[in-house]
Write a structure and sequence with these properties.
Elements (H helix, E strand, L loop, with lengths): L2 H24 L4 H12 L5 H5 L2 H20 L10 H27 L2 H12 L4 H9 L6 H28 L5 H30 L1 E8 L5 E11 L3 H4 L5 H19 L4 H11 L9 H22 L6 H26 L5 H10 L4 H14 L4 H33 L4 H6 L1
Antiparallel strand pairs: 1-2
Length: 422
């Protein structure tokens, strides 16, 4: 393809994505919906070139997915895991287990293919709570107990979801034998352990963040202990003469871990997610969100446009009913799993938390992309997952508001003190 045609495609794709995103933002919906819609609308015509013969756009889409997952990982602070509590942990665990089991067995009935069923089930595990946070903020509930549980559970949910994706993508490349599963589990555990345990310590040491704490020992002497929090010493990053040295080093780590994950047979973006994870506790020190935002603004829309262009409605009558079934399973899976995890806090809290964990958003679409690129799911299954991700994201605000309004209507006739206690 000629350079002029390439530039024209870039222009059209980026402009369409931004127009779609702007329209969704004005409707107080995630811009990702507009970017996907732009790809779906343009896919059958001009942008069909993207999926048929223009591999350059596949590279742009892969880069977009890489930095998207890096940003998701960067929002998942390992230090916050100690603060989420047992309730948030149980919400996340059951919110992964129940949707996966339900999704797998329903998908086996629908597709009669165990590998495709695993990818659909993995897409149902994902959670994207950005839209939930916005709804709770609009309702004045962003500081409520429900919001704290949802946001805390999202931290654990992201990590568990990536572990499930790691295992499924590894198992999908070979036969489903016991030996294969054991090998994949071992690879996943080793990769995650190296990155999260060794990687985080190296990053914190290199960034120069240490805290001095003195404790009196049994013999009356004072001992000095070093931890990784407050005291600032010289950073390795600051000693480099390269311009924007921390940014450059992080880019090297992102690409390096992505390549490493791909080398051991895992999805490359899993490496990007864990790269974000190990830098999550130092992101404020180097203003990483601010520095990576321009990259995300440029590249992430191409990912969603390309993903939208790959949606296939040629078998509309066959795809939509299946997508409706999977969407219902996706909603029920989170309502039951996450709601059960928060049941100890009362029925209202359980319902709000379950509803708040429903949206799959961009994470579900990333899972679909991996399955399609690996050749383990066909275009119809891919379309089903994308439609489910869009539907759950759009439905969540209405579901949360319906639950809260129903609760308000139920307590309206009660005495004030009883309403307060409820």
């Amino acid at each position: 393809m000629e350079t002029e045609e390439t530039l024209l495609l870039i222009f059209v794709a980026f402009l369409a994505a931004k127009i779609g995103g702007e329209l969704m933002e004005r409707l107080r919906l995630p811009s990702v919906i507009g970017e996907l819609a732009a790809g779906i609308i343009l896919g059958p015509t001009l942008l069909s070139l993207i999926t048929e013969e223009h591999t350059f756009f596949d590279v742009l889409a892969q880069l977009g997915a890489t930095f998207l997952l890096f940003s998701v990982g960067m929002e998942t602070k390992l230090s916050e895991l100690k603060k989420v509590g047992m309730v948030a942990g149980s919400v996340a665990a059951l919110g992964v287990l129940v949707p996966f089991v339900l999704g797998y067995y329903v998908s086996i009935l629908l597709f009669d293919n165990s590998v495709e069923a695993m990818f659909v089930a993995t897409a149902l595990v994902a959670t994207s709570v950005g839209i939930t946070a916005r709804v709770l903020d609009d309702l004045g509930m962003i500081h409520s107990m429900e919001a704290k549980i949802i946001l805390g559970a999202a931290v654990v949910d992201d990590i568990l979801g990536m572990i499930v994706l790691t295992l499924v993508s590894g198992v999908a490349v070979g036969d489903l034998t016991v030996v294969k599963v054991i090998v994949v589990v071992a690879e996943a555990v080793c990769f995650i352990a190296i990155v999260t345990i060794i990687g985080t310590r190296v990053v914190k040491y290199a960034s120069g963040k240490r805290e001095v704490r003195s404790d009196k020992t049994a013999n009356g002497m004072w001992a000095i202990h070093y931890t990784t929090r407050a005291f600032k010493r010289d950073s390795w990053f600051d000693k480099l003469r390269q311009r924007q040295a921390p940014f450059v080093i992080i880019l090297v780590v992102v690409f390096g871990l992505s390549a490493m994950a791909s080398f051991v047979g895992l999805a490359a973006i899993i490496g990007a997610f864990f790269a974000g994870l190990i830098f999550s506790d130092t992101k404020d020190t180097y203003e990483l969100e601010h520095k990576f935002e321009p990259l995300n603004v440029l590249l992430v829309p191409f990912f969603f446009v390309v993903m939208g262009a790959r949606v296939d409605f040629s078998d509309f009558a066959g795809v939509v009913p299946v997508a409706i079934v999977i969407t219902v399973v996706a909603i029920l899976g989170k309502l039951l799993g996450c709601g059960l995890g928060a049941a100890s806090k009362g029925e209202r809290t359980a319902l709000v938390v379950g509803a708040g964990m429903v949206p799959r958003g961009e994470v579900g679409i990333v899972v679909a992309m991996i399955g399609l690129n690996m050749g383990t799911i066909n275009e119809s299954v891919y379309t089903v997952i994308v439609l489910m991700s869009i539907a759950t994201t759009l439905y969540t605000p209405f579901l949360i508001k319906t639950i809260i309004r129903a609760e308000a209507k139920h307590t309206k006739g009660l005495p004030f003190i009883q309403r307060f206690r409820s």
